[in-house]
Write a structure and sequence with these properties.
The protein is an alpha+beta fold. It has five helices and six strands; from the N terminus they run βββββααβααα. The protein has two domains: 43 residues; 117 residues. The chain is globular. Bound molecules: zinc ion.
């Protein structure tokens, strides 16, 4: 999100509130010139459900996707604002597709699509957790050996399984 005052894209969200018409009202501060401004952003279809690996589904949760990205981007030069932008891009695609339910595998592919051009290392971390050796999204349960280690990312509900 670009600063309307100086054009820097290094801005940080300081507050997020729901607004009418499926929008979010965000207060942001520019890290370059300290200008504060407010944006309205479209959020994904609130009815969207994500099908989990074990066959059940749960409502799409923006915070969960955000946390998963924060984790794979740890110690990478990816700012909080960029992660926010990645989530927006995934949501924009979901909204455009007008889906009611999105498969877990499709969701992982979408996230990788937007993450790869931004940070290849973070994308590889996500691939390591979600793709098998052939590069396909792993749909079966994790091997028993990994089960005890707990979910790596907690993406889309696997953390409560
Ligand atoms: Zn600025």
């Amino acid at each position: 999100m670009q600063c309307p005052s100086c054009g820097s894209d290094d801005t940080q969200v300081t507050e997020t509130r729901p607004a009418p018409k499926n929008e979010l009202r965000r207060r942001r501060v520019c890290q370059a010139c300290k200008q504060r401004f407010t944006t309205r952003e479209q959020i994904a279809a609130p009815q969207l459900k994500v099908e989990k690996r074990r066959g059940s589904s749960e409502p799409y949760d923006r915070a969960k996707l955000h946390r998963a990205l924060v984790r794979v981007c740890s110690r990478r030069p990816v700012t909080e604002a960029t992660i926010d932008e990645l989530v927006n891009r995934v949501e924009a695609r979901l909204t455009k597709a007008q889906l009611r339910t999105v498969g877990w595998a499709r969701m992982v592919e979408l996230v990788l699509d937007v993450l790869r051009p931004v940070d290849a290392v973070a994308a590889r971390r996500m691939e390591a957790d979600y793709l098998d050796e052939a590069g396909a999204v792993r749909l079966s349960d994790a091997p028993a050996a990994e089960e005890g280690a707990g979910p790596q990312l907690g993406l889309f509900g696997d953390d409560d399984a």
